[in-house]
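Q: Predict the bound structure with 5'-deoxyadenosine.
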Amino acid sequence: MTQQTEKDRQFLFIEQAKEYVDKLAEQLGRRPLCNVTTFGCQMNARDSEKLSGILEQVGYELVDTEDADFVIYNTCTVRDNANQRVYGRLGFLNSMKKKKPHMKIALCGCMMQEDLVIEKIKKSYRFVDLIFGTHNIFKFAELLCTMFESDDMVIDIWKDTDQIVEDLPVERKYSFKSGINIMFGCNNFCSYCIVPYVRGRERSRNPKDIIREIENLAADGVVEIMLLGQNVNSYGKTLEEPMSFAQLLREVEKVDGIERIRFMTSHPKDLSEELIQVMKESKKICRHLHLPLQSGSTRILDAMNRRYTKEQYLAIAEKIRKEIPDMAITTDIIVGFPGETLADVEETIEVVKRVKYDNAFTFIYSKRTGTPAAAMDNQVSQEVVKEGFDKLLKIVQETARERASMLEGLTVSALVEEINEQDSSLVTGRLSNNTIVHFPGNQSFIGKIMNVKLKECRGFYYTGELVD
Ligand code: 5AD
Ligand code: SF4
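A: Predicted complex:
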């Protein structure tokens, strides 16, 4: 089936779903409410905007509370605690559904791509109405119709897909910034990671489609974009006319109206010299690079199948620090990978001290069924994990604090994102390097890029004042 006809099919289902929602509205005597709750990463957040786009079109009112007529959990399975949170909250949804029998519940996202999860939901969570996965989210309108037509649980999970359906409705969370998928899936198979199994093989979107989407966003008032992919540095390799990520960035830079460009996530093994040069020369690429380390021990990196050594990683980080000194570097680190000793954690700590990360997300290793690491027989005891984790966290916080105050006293540009939650006389803005600044302002500032003097660094954020 061609892409165009699939898109057209989905628009027909949108029309059909509208009729079901209209009927429901008549029964309820009001517009039905729908809640989309997102777990996990930016990729999932973007998927939720696509779900919301369809829901809005078919007549639901989107709300933040789960006390709604239709609740969708867009799930994550990268670590087990993400799964446990979903199960916990499903219990709570069940009690709500008992009071409101017309209520519908749907589950989608990464967790649903796992057979064991589906078995468990079929057995113990019979009240769920619709389950789908990551590969067929483009047919959400069709799935909605099937759900309305069926009394049983509707399950539609695909193992993989090479389809990319363009131009379906999207409802953005922010009017002034947006994520954009540039590629889907992952081919890296890091030995601890479930993502390649739940998000499928790597496939890049056509650059023309990406640029067209960005131009449309700019015309709609978006000033900051984030290019999304599991490994953006390998963008374009599978295209008919291959193109590098650095080349794509050069094209994106040309789009008028877009002031800031971010991207997530970069794999160190694919970070090219060309990319460093493009970042250095760019006026729009933000001064923030997320470069997951995972471990500073070459032995563990090898077992993780990361395909770089401690020395290679350090060389890249040092090069970036030298070429682009104001670039914030953040990272992800896992503690407790099978076979890891405290000596390995010391090597990770050494890397943290040398790179001086602006921020580091530290995770305790979580065993994911089906990954090579889950079958390794040298799993680390909880006590050893805790000792290494606490030690690492202390160093990470120290170095991050040191870097955080670097801009104190300077005047820099900030994109104002919202009214401050604690104090409504303040607004919250984001600097190019991803740090937050709070300064006096009002609703009219939201979505604008403004010059702010950073008066004081308070731990990990600044207080500031507007400079005309
Ligand atoms: N256990 C712990 N952390 C993990 N991550 C991915 N898989 C696991 C796992 N099995 C972390 C990595 C990745 C981040 C998104 O989540 O650090 O970069
Ligand atoms: Fe994102 Fe991975 Fe979680 Fe899926 S499993 S939501 S890709 S972090």
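A: The chain has a mean pLDDT of 96.
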